[in-house]
Amino acid sequence: MKAIRVNDWGKPVQLEEISQPVPANDEALIRIHAASINPVDSAVIAGYMSFMTKAPLTLGTDFSGEVIKVGKDVTHVKPGDAVYGLIPMRSGTFSEYTTARAHEVALKPKTLDHIHASTIPLPSMAAWQSLFELGSYKKGERVLIHGVAGSVGGLAAQFAKSKGAYVYGSDIPEKAGHAAELGIDRFIDLKTERFEDVVKDVDIVLDFIGGEYLERSYSILKAGGRYVTATNMQPPQEEPQKRGFHSAGLGAQARADLLAQIAEMVDAGKLKVFVNRTFPLEQTQAALDYRLSSKNPGKVVLTIL
Predict the structure, then answer these.
(1) Binning pLDDT at 50, 70 and 90, where does residue 120 land?
(2) How many other C-beta atoms lie within 10 A of the C-beta of residue 142?
(3) Per-residue DSSP letter, 226
(4) For the segment 7-18, what is each residue's pLDDT rounded down to a tens digit?
(5) Residue range(s) in the chain whose domain bears CATH number 3.90.180.10
(6) Which of 2, 18, 278, 301 has the most CB within a 10 Å radius?
């Protein structure tokens, strides 16, 4: 089968022929129709995740496709089912086939094609777990989302609004229109505004930008507030402990039950997803380069079969 491989850290990816995987008892074999690109894919190529994985490897996390075969322990999907999911740092999804463990795959939203469905899995896990699990969101709270127009931030904003939050969202000015589509209450232009001048005593900060935004965000959280970042697994704790709020780093986990719940939300018209541009599998390196330079909203998706 064809697959996009990382052979050396920091080098361009390569399209290669490799053996089709064989599913274990707790896995499903998936024929992939579309796979979306996440920021973590560029981090893997650069070697930033080399402590978790080794080259050579097949790149990619998110997918949408069709079940071909299931192991004896997989009972919630069957051959012929249209499914979507994510595979964290293992067999890769930028390929014609992959194997997904039972908790990594669920029936895809019926109202979406494979291209749009492939944009959801990892960002939705990160957004949901940031807001509701690590962030312990309560109805009516005020939430600030850094990077609100990104794939994770956009879903987090929609989740928060659906549960009655007042949502501030910060991002670059080119994405103000997209942020408005998400229904947020106040957009903060990061080129012309300091979010500290707009937001005070917020309940939750979801930080999908990182860097200097970490320490700066601490200054606008109320006592008892929560700061969650997807860019630092172990954010500093001294200031949060001193000021009486919680600070946590996110490592998004695949959950089939949550993927199924999110598919229901999409089919009920409660979530919007966005595609920036598609590329064929053979042009994956061009797609990776484009994603890094594009300021347009939505995910970049590889079309495969």
Answers:
(1) very high
(2) 20
(3) E
(4) 999 999 999 999
(5) 2-120+273-303
(6) 301
Amino acid 171 reads D
Q: Which helix (H) or strand (E) holds 204?
A: strand 202-207
Domain 123-249 CATH class label: alpha beta
Q: Are strands 275-280 and 299-303 parallel, antiparallel or unpaired?
A: parallel
If residue 176 lies in a helix (H) or strand (E), which one and from where to where?
helix 176-181
As annotated, the residues of the chain forming the CATH 3.40.50.720 domain(s) are 123-249
Q: Where are the beta strands (DSSP E) in 9-113?
A: 14-17, 27-36, 57-58, 62-70, 82-86, 97-101, 105-107
pLDDT tens digits along 222-254: 999 999 998 777 777 777 777 788 889 888 999
* CATH fourth-level superfamily of 2-120+273-303: Medium-chain alcohol dehydrogenases, catalytic domain (3.90.180.10)
pLDDT in tens, 178-226: 999 999 999 999 999 999 999 999 999 999 998 888 889 988 999 999 9
Q: Could you tell me how far CA 267 lies from the centroid of its own chain?
A: 19
Query: What's the pTM value of the predicted model, to 2 decimals?
Result: 0.94
Nearest one of 263, 265, 290 to 276, comparing CA atoms = 290
3-state secondary structure of 109: coil
